[in-house]
Amino acid sequence: MKYELILFDLDGTLVDSASGVIKSIDYTIDFLSLPQLSEEEKKALVGLPIFNSFKERYKMDDCSAEHATKIFRDIYRKDFLYDASLYKNVAPTLGRLRDCRYKLAIASYKKDDYCSLLLKYLQVDKMFDFIQGSNSNNKLTKTDIIRHCIKNFNIALDKILMVGDTAHDALGAENVGIDFVGVSYGFGNKNELYNYKNIAIIDDIEKIFDVLS
User: Fold this and answer.
1) pLDDT digits 0-9 by tens, 105-132
2) Dihedrals φ, ψ of 145, to 5°?
3) List of domains in the chain
4) Could you read off the pLDDT of 99-109 as tens digits, one per residue?
5) Which of 27, 59, 83, 141 has the CA that lies 20 to 30 A from 65?
6) Three-state DSSP class for 159?
7) What is the pTM of this model?
């Protein structure tokens, strides 16, 4: 096998979590009496680090952004975490990859515990050898998350593949020195993915087997 370990981003790659995330953004905006965002502006925030999103969108200082992030995460965990579904063909693709003896892991901006809870709810948690999410201090970049994840495996970089939907995923893979496959159906801008090194951009997760063959 060319690859031994496949890392997956979660939101926008395996899971369509847009509805729950947007509802949590709406709640946070209303709670803090922030200026309203258009639907397109809110959709653009899905799958990105929520701390950075609030900080940059509303020109907040770190303290204010941390407060907004806490409000978002609390309501998201309480009411909207499970307002999500797997994208088409995700479950059978993961099962087939396991059957083919690939190691599978998650490398996500979503908090560790949220990743685990959501994957268990969607009944695919057993597919993964390791789940690496973000932490509570909001400081990890996607590069950091990928690096932390692969430290748990004794596998050479040229045997590791990252799959994601955003420029953050592509840049993180490039910075770490692993190959990247982009998915065009997620929350990211497909055109941005072409600005980074990639071995393929696919419109259905099951097409990863075309890359692996």
Assistant:
1) 999 999 999 999 999 999 999 999 999 9
2) -65, -45
3) 5-16+84-212 (3.40.50.1000), 18-80 (1.10.150.240)
4) 999 999 999 99
5) 83
6) helix
7) 0.94
